[in-house]
Amino acid sequence: MKAASREALATSQTRLDEILGGDNNVATAAQAGLDIFEVVDVLDADRELRVAFTDIAAPSEARKSLAETLFGSKISGGALRIIQEAAAAQWSTPKDFVKGLVSLGRRALLRGAEAQGQLGQVEDELFRLSQILDREGELTQLLSDRTADSARKRGLLANVLYGKVTMFTEALVLQAISRPEQNPIDDVAALADSAADLQGRTIARVTAAGELNEGQQAVLAEKLGKIYGRAMSIHSEVDTSLLGGMRIRVGDEVIDGSTAGKIARLRAQMA
C-alpha cells in the first residue's frame, strides 16, 4: 500500500476498535467481520463500485451515503459504520480500499476472539495450522492453486478444521484461503502475527532439537523480550535434525544456535 492508503487503514482500524469496543460484544464483532467480507465479495465483482468508493472528487459524506444505500439493509450496524468510516478515508487506489476492508474484516474477527477470551488460543491455533500446512505438501499445493475453485478449497479446508478450532480461527483461515496474498503457509502465519500484535506481542518461531517445557519457553520469552524490547510469544516445534540447541526466527531475523547450524558454519570456514 502507498502512504495515503496506509494512513487510511490505520485510521479505519482505530475507528473499528472504537465501534466494536463499546460493548465488548462477541456476537457484534463476529458478525461485523463476516459482513465486511460479504461487502468485499460484492466489490470484488464490481469495478465501478470500487472506483466510486475511492473517488476523492466526491465528498466523504457522499461515499458514506453510498455505503448506506447499498448495504444498509443487508449488513449489521457495526459493519456498516466500519465500512462508512473506511469509505470516508482517502485511499490511493480502489484495490487498496478492498485490501483495507479485508484487513478490517480480519481485525473484527480477532476483536471478537478477544472479547470471547480466545485471542491467545486463536493465535496458537493459527500457528499450529501453518505447521500442518508446512508438513502436508499435497494439501498446501491444492490450496495454493489459483486456478482451483475457491469454494472447493474452502470446503476441503473446512473439513480439516471442523470441530478442531474456534469459530474465529476457522472463519479467518477460510477467508485467507479465498483471498491469497502469498501462499497458505505464510498467509496463515501472518494471521497468527496479527493475533499476537493485538495482544502487544511479537511471535518468535522456535525450532528446537527437543521439546521445550513451559519453564524453558518462559525463560526464552524473557530473554528475547529484552533483546527486542517487546513482549514475545513463543511458538515452538521439534526438529531432531538440529542435533542440539535451537533456531529462532523473529520476523525476517534468524538466530541459529543449533548444533547443526554450528557444524555448517564450521564446514564453510574450513572450505
TrEMBL record:
Q: Where in the cell is it found?
A: Cell membrane; Membrane
The main location class comes to membrane
**InterPro entries hit by this protein:** ATP_synth_OSCP/delta_N_sf, ATPase_OSCP/d_CS, ATPase_OSCP/dsu
Keyword hit for Disulfide bond: no
One Pfam family cited in the UniProt record for this chain: OSCP
Q: Which Gene3D superfamilies match?
A: N-terminal domain of the delta subunit of the F1F0-ATP synthase
- Output the superkingdom of the source species: Bacteria
Q: Which GO terms describe its cellular component?
A: plasma membrane; proton-transporting ATP synthase complex
Q: Name one GO molecular function term.
A: proton-transporting ATP synthase activity, rotational mechanism
Which keywords describe this protein according to UniProt?
A: ATP synthesis, Cell membrane, CF(1), Hydrogen ion transport, Hydrolase, Ion transport, Membrane, Transport
Q: How does it sit in the membrane?
A: Peripheral membrane protein
Q: Which family does the entry's similarity section mention?
A: Belongs to the ATPase delta chain family.
Write out the function statement from the record: This protein is part of the stalk that links CF(0) to CF(1). It either transmits conformational changes from CF(0) to CF(1) or is implicated in proton conduction. F(1)F(0) ATP synthase produces ATP from ADP in the presence of a proton or sodium gradient. F-type ATPases consist of two structural domains, F(1) containing the extramembraneous catalytic core and F(0) containing the membrane proton channel, linked together by a central stalk and a peripheral stalk. During catalysis, ATP synthesis in the catalytic domain of F(1) is coupled via a rotary mechanism of the central stalk subunits to proton translocation.
User: What's this protein's name?
Assistant: ATP synthase subunit delta
Q: What is the lineage of its organism?
A: Bacteria, Bacillati, Actinomycetota, Actinomycetes, Mycobacteriales
